[in-house]
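The instructor's notes for this session suggest beginning with a concrete chain rather than abstract definitions. Hand out the sequence below and ask the class to guess, before any prediction is shown, which regions might be ordered.
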Amino acid sequence: MSADPVIPDRAVFKASEVCEIAQIKPFVLRSWEAEFTDLGAPRASGGGRVYRRTDVERVLRIKALLFGEGLTLSGVRRRFEGEAAQSPEAASGDGQLVEELLGRDVRERVVSIKAGLQSILQLLERQGAVGAAAVSRPAAGASTPPSPPDVASLDAYPASAASRRSTSTRRATRRRASA
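After discussion, reveal the predicted structure:
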């Protein structure tokens, strides 16, 4: 086995970067994801999975245990479970990661964005681009439940593909009978 790989000083990595750092194939990483479900973050909308620095370190540890110590995947999982039971401080690292990824001033940025969006909405309302009926804002702190669907419009559509087929079959049969 070669020397310990160097992990770049970043918070998140793409799957291809993890494969390059660990010198493994993508299908191997995907199989390890299936075995260790907490490995990697869920897929971003429209993008691939992202991995935290701790995930990259864990991938390297899995590789070392599999190839260096000759454990199986279930053996590696049992080793991790045993280590997790012994060290409760591992759970507190996630809060620090979120703070590191998002920054310390997240609340201020969200409030600033919200104020900007509200000013855009007011500008559009003044210009008449957004009608009062199209924009229904709840009172401060209140939330409005979603409106129920228009039942009359739902009745116009059959309930399933099977009923659509039977309706079209009945129409075809009526056409043949009348011809």
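Then share the key points. The two ends are 81 Å apart (CA to CA). The mean pLDDT is 75.
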